Design the sequence.
């Protein structure tokens, strides 16, 4: 399904992106959004939003906290933002929740917890920021996997991992350093390395497409 957002009055860019994010916060998958007269592929974000909707409902119903971590935005003196943790297997709640929280707690990130409602609000805000990056990308690569990314680390042979900047995961592999190379849709991401089975991240959300290599000073 594709959704067109054509404002009837002159909205600010933030209002346009916020309305676009709101249209993704539902239980069906959307393939495209029209933002600023540009067709933007969003199926990957939409699938995560469908998962997130169910996750936050389940957290609230079970009286569980929404875990996540704080990240800096790329750039000097940028503010920190909270990214909620994804619970991968919603049909195996207890084991999946326990494992995800344990893996996050073992990382070097600044872990925090909040209510399900506040976690959902943080997810939506991070989606707004992701859409901002994606809608500004060249038309030929909007939302596609055509963004080459190169990540350098302190040594060779490490497994480089990454997380999306709107839904935190500590277990997603990217490639072997150094350098690790791959393709990602336009958006915000953090990168790190697996050390002795534990993911360590840079703590910075990088914009993709990105000019030049991304250097992660780890391990």
Sequence:
């Amino acid at each position: 399904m594709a959704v067109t957002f054509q404002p009837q009055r002159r909205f600010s860019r933030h209002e346009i992106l916020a309305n676009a994010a709101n249209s993704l916060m539902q239980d069906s998958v959307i393939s495209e959004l029209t933002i600023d007269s540009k067709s933007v592929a969003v199926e990957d974000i939409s699938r995560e939003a469908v998962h997130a909707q169910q996750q936050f409902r389940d957290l609230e119903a079970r009286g569980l906290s929404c875990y996540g971590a704080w990240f800096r935005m790329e750039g000097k003196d940028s503010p920190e933002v909270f990214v909620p943790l994804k619970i991968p297997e919603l049909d195996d709640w207890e084991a999946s929740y326990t494992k995800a929280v344990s893996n996050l707690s073992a990382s070097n990130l600044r872990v925090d917890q909040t209510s399900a409602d506040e976690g959902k609000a943080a997810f939506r805000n991070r989606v707004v920021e992701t859409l901002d990056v994606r809608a500004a990308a060249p038309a030929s690569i909007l939302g596609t996997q055509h963004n080459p990314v190169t990540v350098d680390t302190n040594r060779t042979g490490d497994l480089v991992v990454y997380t999306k900047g709107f839904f935190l995961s500590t277990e997603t592999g990217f490639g072997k350093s150094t350098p690790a190379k791959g393709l990602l849709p336009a958006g915000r991401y953090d990168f790190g390395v697996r050390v002795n089975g534990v993911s360590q991240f840079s703590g910075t959300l990088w914009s993709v497409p990105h000019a030049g290599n991304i250097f992660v000073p780890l391990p």
